[in-house]
Prior knowledge:
The complex is a heterotrimer of chains A (305), B (384) and C (336).
Chain A: H1 5-31, H2 49-56, H3 58-91, H4 96-108, H5 111-121, H6 128-135, H7 145-152, H8 165-190, H9 194-202, H10 208-219, H11 221-236, H12 240-245, H13 259-269, H14 273-299
Helix pairs in contact in A: 1-14, 2-3, 3-4, 3-8, 3-11, 4-8, 8-11, 11-14, 13-14
Chain B: E1 4-13, E2 16-26, E3 31-35, H1 42-50, E4 57-62, E5 65-66, E6 77-80, H2 92-104, H3 112-118, H4 120-137, H5 152-164, E7 170-174, H6 182-199, E8 202-206, H7 210-216, E9 219-224, E10 227-232, H8 234-239, H9 244-249, E11 256-262, E12 268-270, E13 273-275, E14 286-291, E15 296-299, E16 307-316, E17 321-326, E18 331-336, H10 338-341, E19 349-354, E20 360-362, E21 368-369, E22 382-383
Helix pairs in contact in B: 2-4, 2-5, 4-5, 5-6
Chain C: H1 18-46, H2 49-54, E1 66-67, H3 69-75, H4 79-85, H5 94-109, E2 110-111, H6 113-124, H7 127-158, H8 164-174, H9 183-192, H10 199-203, H11 210-221, H12 225-233, H13 238-249, H14 251-267, H15 270-275, H16 285-294, H17 301-321, H18 323-334
Antiparallel strand pairs in C: 1-2
Helix pairs in contact in C: 1-17, 3-5, 6-17, 7-11, 7-14, 7-16, 12-13, 14-18, 16-17, 17-18
Amino acid sequence: MNRTAHIWFVAPATLLMIVILILPIFAAAVLSFTDYSLGNDSFKWVGDKNYDRIFNRSSFQKMFTATFTYVLVVVPLAVGLGLGVALLINSVSRFGDVYKTIYFLPVMAALLAMAIVWEFTLHPSVGLINQTLARGCGTWLEWFAFFRNGCEKTFPLWLGDRDYAIWTVSFIGIWQGFGFNMVLYLAGLTSVPRELYNAAEVDGAKTGWDRFRLVTWPMLGPTTVFVVTITCIRSFQVFDTVEAFYPSGGGPSKSVYVMMFAIFEKGIQQNLIGMGSAITVIFLGFVLILTLTQRWLVERRVHYS
Amino acid sequence: MVGIILNGVTKSFGDTSVLKGIDLDITDGEFLTLVGPSGCGKSTLLRIIAELEQQSGGDVRIGNRLVNSVRAAERNLAMVFQSYALYQHLTVAQNMTVPLRLRELGFFERFPVIGRMMARSKHAAIIEQVRETADVLQIGPLLDRKPGQLSGGQRQRAALGRAMVRKPVAFLMNEPQSNPDTALRVHMRAEPAELHRDLGATFIYVPHDQAAALTMSDRMAVMMGGEILQLAPPEEVYANPSDLRVAQFVGSPKINTWDAVVDEIGRIHVGEMVLARRCNPGHGPRITVGLRPEHLQLVPGETMGSLSGTRVHRENLGADVYLHLDLGGPRIVVRADPGMAHNLTIGDMAHATPLRDKALIFATDGSRLSFAEGAPVAQATEVA
Amino acid sequence: MTDVTLSARPATTLSWSWTEALKHAVLIIGALIVILPFYVMVSYSLKSPGEIDRNEGGFFGAQETMVNPRCVKRAEPDRTAIEAARPDFPGKTDREIKAAMMEQIEAGCSSRPVVFNYTMAFSEAPLLRYLLNGVIVTASIFLIQNIVALPCAYALAKLRWRGRNFVFTMVLFCLLIPVHAIALPLYLGLAKLGLTNTYAALIIPWTISVFGIFLMRQFFMTVPDDLIDAARMDGMSEFGIIWKVMLPTAIPALLAFAIFSVVAHWNDYFWPRIVVTGTRELFTPPLGLREFKGDADGSFFGPMMATATVIVTPLIVAFLLAQRRFIEGITQTGMK
């Protein structure tokens, strides 16, 4: 047995971990206190000016609003839909695999490509959505205020409308993400012992809801913790759709100016590295809080041996 | 073929000492078994001989060559593992060629196509060697199968084949996970023993239970707590254990034991009874007396010096029946003739007399004591 | 969601049940919404611009031959071409010659919409090049990730050495860091090294997959020690053990990781967008599509959707062929 082999096995990975993952965090932390930009030889220390701006300027307040709106809309719905669809698929006797395949398709497809397709589909005049809605004009559907307004003036611009933009982008986020959660929940459901349902029934859990409360939901606890965390982190990182729809500046009235886009815009496009780094640091802070919460919740049950 | 000598081999993992100075001299061509309760260090010892584990202290010699810093692959030992450890993605034949290819072929000679062209004769020799070994083990028809398609017995043979094919100086064997099928288990145990006879190679075998050790080995080493307590032929270990722990470990059912007191003239008192033989009074005052179940004889009624107790359990092994008797406190096991034993039901009173000159005595630290020379004490109550 | 226990009963009877029908209805509506953009994408990639504008022609469109205006414009005969063609049209005026030539050109430039869309997708932008880049980048990333991660995972799972716990803790910590989030400092470092707009820039940040290390380590833990000892007895080096013993046993885990890695990097848009600017030579498929969109006018919906279809198809087809594997892979890698 070679007693030094491990050094050669571990060294490359450790080195890369330090250089690619750990050092950049420190770099971002340091740069966030400067006014550095690429191409300049020198930089000035600006103290907490960058952070001060982020927390006080209205454009950055919009950034937080957009990011948190997106996360708070996408996470519960993507998780809830994932769970709901998983339960439904698990309970139907036929075609479960077909549904599973279909719902999983968006996970596999390049989000950028699908964003462009959605943009066409949601196009105010030639888009399939509004054209289909327009067909409802003149029918009983006009009884709804939404249709009446749409037929009299125009149907929503969706992506171009300040009131609709963030919701539309969130919808696409949910559309893209819930299939993944569904699959995780289906995996979680297979690990629920069948006897537990029988036991619950014997114990008098008569309705499906009772059994769900008594057996399914508690057994899915660990899955839920994981699903919520990963959906949160993915939602925080939303970028592809926003950049595809609004290449220059975060949508109508910056209502979709999410953090990743802000990092991209400030740090890369406008070469304000210090500013971008400060947003990066705040971003990492959020992610860290999230994952540590998850670890804390999970660690009480699971231990990696 | 060569012997293997261990000198004061120690091993500790952190603060826990697993082996506490093992001295072992395995002669050429010997079949040695290592037995002991789980965690006694026998597997570790085997792994140290193979250099899969580095000893903390002491020397390992193979054929008089000090091999402390010789790598596992170069010690020319073969090992058969508990799980067989066959490569699942390779066929039996490929499994058997691995050790040969790695030993006998250079780096480039192992390449799929070029290698074969570079060293045609070497490749042919390897294939020939595999075929020969397969013939010996009668696994020729299995050569193209993968381990997943083999039965337990076939897997063992494939694993033996992989070990044999490179003609090692010694075989190290961890007995496979015990098979639920008794007949198959007996058969699978017979295989290494036969192989040993045919090849005349040195075998170090770690069986699951001591029954195998008793039947197979030239000598057995009983290990406990990281030490070898006794190293002797199996009959010797059974009849003449050097330590109470050895006596208790070897033999099934377990040896019966009693606490006894030695008086000033060396008589040994077990309860109200006194043994026929005496020991040195200096061993006393407290000792342990052991008597194997077959050294107790069931008698129809209470007689002089018999032990009486109620029957609590019966182990029927067909030819023999072991009765567990409750003596009102201590329990003993008696081997009985089925005819007599079947008349007894639970709760019945049974009586057994110890056979003469069969008892073993041990000091409080477990070491074996010998009886004093000289005539037994002539006294009516003396037994055993 | 109301009757979860149906799954606990064997589905032996296929009798009509209202709850079952309702569930299917809900699932079908959901499936239609999920599939809508895919429908739009493929359908538009088959239709002519007019059909797209007017939203007619069903899924396949009428597939009437259409004339490609760009093709015609490019081939439009100028003065010298007309002069050169004069001998072919004796006794015709310039105007007549031009009309005749235009007719020929239009005939040459007309095609079925589906052919038009897909040929445009490949001819207007170097789509093949993008696809090739995608393959190069994803394959290199996966290969290097393995070369780095497998030995480390092996050492963490099966070798005893000082500092093992420290390194494993580091791995667990690094699992928390989303690489996209630290894109800015990474970009800065690569820019300082003069590596932006190279394949290296696309690959380097992903060479270390902490996740791969973790996943493979967990899998290697389940490989019996005996197997490794047997290989050592057979004379294999530790390095040989990784590739010849551990790797073949770890194929299922490796496949799961491969799926995870390839899906993530084939579809990645954020990182290529940052480090590749301008040079089309290095565009990955999503970047190429993005650029296509950037300089497309209204009539190019069809070719653009064709491009999107071409980019999305490889993974979808692979997914449909090996669904179970994919879903298992994604779940296994997803569930840490």
